[in-house]
Design brief:
Helices cover 22% and strands 32% of the residues. The mean pLDDT is 90.
Length: 263
């Protein structure tokens, strides 16, 4: 009965992590290019009273053993890198990656991070930056007074200046991908940091380098959170938490009965 309490406690802890993960998914349902997470679990050690295949008292062996588990533990909270829906905005500086790849940005402290959120702006010097002011890397500067901005699927940025009839190229957006994007470290603000697990960053041109997606101007990638699926998962997690708490209550009542036995 004591073991049942500890086993149920691991189940409650696991479901709390599950609920926290789902809550974060639901909170970011309208976050550009957000990737939902999924909590994964594994069972704990088993106390083995009898192994299957051991000799029986009579002729033969036991076909099934006796093993009692000790509960559950969280293994990972993994990102699901499924493409989100494309939402048309008609904004010249809104970019979406159709396929694999990340935009590379440089923070004010000099660190390089990666994002799929292509909602870019121009700062006071014409440089393309994120909403938090992180600069697109390599740096692309839009000339002052540009009448229009055109960005091709390969990331070529062109600007039409006053007094000329043909747009001139002002930069090239490079995309970055990783062999194991699940190994990236989420830093918040739609940013990811590479790690040993993700592998080194691989750079290329959108649509023309194998393994990279294309850049779509005037679109933003929506969150890939599935509201119906996560609401169902929330209910399941809540019920699992409740059942584990009932197990603790049942074990406590059984102990109380044993303590109150009379001869």
């Amino acid at each position: 009965m004591i073991r049942a309490m500890w086993t149920a406690a691991t189940g409650m802890t696991a479901q709390q992590i599950n609920v926290d993960t789902i809550a974060n998914n639901l909170a970011n349902v309208n976050t550009n290019a957000f990737k939902r997470s999924r909590a994964e679990f594994a069972d704990l050690l088993y106390q083995t009273t009898r192994l299957p295949g051991t000799s029986a008292s009579n002729v033969g062996v036991f076909p099934v053993g006796i093993q009692v588990g000790a509960g559950v533990r969280p293994v990972t909270v993994a990102k699901e890198w499924i493409q989100g829906n494309m939402r048309q905005t008609n904004n010249d500086l809104d970019l979406a990656i159709d396929g694999a790849g990340f935009f590379q940005v440089q923070r004010s402290d000099g660190s390089v991070m990666y994002t799929r959120n292509g909602s870019f702006k121009r700062d006071n010097t014409g440089n393309l930056v994120t909403g938090d002011g992180d600069m697109l890397n390599p740096v692309i500067t839009i000339p002052s007074g540009a009448l229009s901005i055109s960005i091709g699927q390969d990331g070529t940025v062109s600007a039409l200046l006053p007094g000329v009839t043909q747009a001139s190229q002002v930069g090239q957006i490079q995309l970055t991908r990783f062999d194991n994007p699940s190994g990236l470290v989420a830093m918040g603000s739609n940013l990811f940091l590479d790690s040993f697990a993700s592998g080194p960053p691989l750079q290329g041109t959108g649509g023309f380098t194998t393994g990279f997606g294309t850049v779509q101007q005037g679109f933003l990638e929506s969150s890939n959170v599935n509201l119906a699926e996560d609401m169902v998962n929330m209910i399941i997690a809540q019920r699992s938490y409740e059942v584990n708490s009932k197990t603790i209550q049942a074990a406590d009542e059984m102990m109380s009965i044993a303590n109150n036995l009379r001869r």
